[in-house]
Amino acid sequence: MHVSHLSLADFRSYARVEVPLDPGVTAFVGPNGQGKTNLVEAVGYLATLGSHRVSSDAPLVRMGADRAIVRAAVVQGERQQLVELELNPGKANRARINRSSQVRPRDVLGIVRTVLFAPEDLALVKGDPGERRRFLDELITTRSPRMAGVRSDYDRVLKQRNTLLKTAALARRHGGRRGAPPARADSSVGADLSTLDVWDQHLARAGAELLAQRFDLIAALRPLADKAYEQLAPGGGPLGLEYRGSAGEVPAAGNREELYGVLLAALGEARRNEIERGVTLVGPHRDDLLLKLGQLPAKGYASHGESWSYALALRLASYELLRAEGNEPVLILDDVFAELDTRRRERLAELVAPGEQVLVTAAVDDDVPGVLAGARYAVSGGTVERVER
Ligand SMILES: Nc1ncnc2c1ncn2[C@@H]1O[C@H](COP(=O)(O)OP(=O)(O)OP(=O)(O)O)[C@@H](O)[C@H]1O
Ligand SMILES: [Mg+2]
Fold first, then answer.
1. In this model, does residue 358 exceed pLDDT 70?
2. Pairing of strands 330-334, 114-117
3. Percent of the chain that is helix, strand, coil (3-state, to 5)
4. Distance 292 CA to ligand 1 centre (A)
């Protein structure tokens, strides 16, 4: 698929901007801080309902405005669709498809598909487990948009379960104190805790679905990531992608029922500890993806350049995977070329040049490799103007 038109209102630094886009390569070039990343961030938002730079929507709304609108015309084969998101920080966001009446924002997932690589991705390798979980889960949702529902079910159940555990933990601590009414506190905690069984089942059900999808994804990514790394940094690998679960030994090839059973049993075992700590200690939200380079973990061992190539290899693998599965995503490379030496630059450019749509940002024109001939836009002072060459 590709985006044939992007339209923003009060998004980031843009009061209004209209950007017609062609398939193939488009480069946005301009000095620092002029709004290049803001443009591609908006495209990424349509695909994931989130920004690659911030975790909340508030910074995406132009200072002084109270809502932002991101709209895109999307072409997939013969089909044309118009998607629109209205960002209302602090309130529910709204969405429309083809100007018709409103749908849930989640319903637009799958129309715009992107793989976005940006300097922030270094955190995939060097950062906390949460970064890698987000990488996996966003890709899972791109592959299968219905997983957005499973993820939000999981998050909701987790939150409620944690609230219950926290209350129980507090009541335990205070229940033993002089002056507190121990009998009443104990009985209400007992009643609350009996509902934990039900929450365990809900958590294990959604968790098993998420785990199964993560295992399937990792298995599919392994050979592709290895290949991409070899292309970027010949002889530097191999890469190792190993899932580190919080629920002990989990059968990676297990079906949903098996995974459900394993999670439920692990929650049962952890319960005492969880009630003491007041938080859910087992489940996909506590898991990690161990990234190995050769025999060593990349985190803590890999050099800056190696970490950068590793993160890029993961994104290129994601891109290859989505392409192989049919609906080709838009590839977004934000400020990537300046970080690479000439050889790696050329290699990357050759790899991505045939893509259906590739959006590139760069501060200087010379950073965009010659192979990536295509449309150029000059981005400066809130305007985006096509450069005829
Ligand atoms: N909510 C907002 N309201 C107004 N301006 C904003 C908002 N969010 C970001 N900006 C402005 O947008 C500019 C950054 O834009 P962007 O990150 O797209 O720059 P860039 O062209 O990619 O720069 P670089 O080359 O440094 O990566 C900054 O000047 C910032 O102050
Ligand atoms: Mg930028």
1. yes
2. parallel
3. 50, 25, 30
4. 34
Structure tokens at 242: 């190993």
Q: Using a 6 Å CB cutoff, which residues line ligand 1?
A: 12-13, 30, 32-38, 59, 61-63, 335, 361, 363, 379
Closest residue CA from atom 9 of ligand 1: 12
By DSSP bridging, strand 102-103 and strand 114-117 are unpaired
How far is Cα 10 from Cα 60, in angstroms, rounded to an integer? 8
Measured in Å, residue 34 CA sits from the centre of ligand 1 at 6
**DSSP structure class, residue 106:** G
User: Alpha-carbon distance 72 to 82, whole Å?
Assistant: 6
Nearest to 228 by CA among 115, 129, 67: 115
| Closest CA to ligand 1's atom 26 | 32
Q: Which residues surround ligand 2, an ion (CB under 5 A)?
A: 37
Return the ∠ at Cα 45 (arms to 53 and 151), rounded to 5°.
90
C-alpha–C-alpha distance, residues 203 and 108, integer Å:
26
| Tens of pLDDT, residues 249-294 | 777 777 889 999 999 999 999 999 999 999 999 999 999 999 999 9
**Distance between CA atoms of 152 and 119, rounded to whole angstroms?**
28
**pTM as predicted:** 0.92
Q: Tell me if the bond preceding 238 is cis, omega within 30° of 0.
A: yes
Kindly give the distance from the C-alpha atom of residue 189 to the centroid of ligand 1, in angstroms, as a whole number: 50
Q: How far apart are CA 262 and CA 197, in angstroms?
A: 15
pLDDT, tens digit, for every residue of 99-109?
887 899 999 99
**Distance between CA atoms of 293 and 187, rounded to whole angstroms?**
53
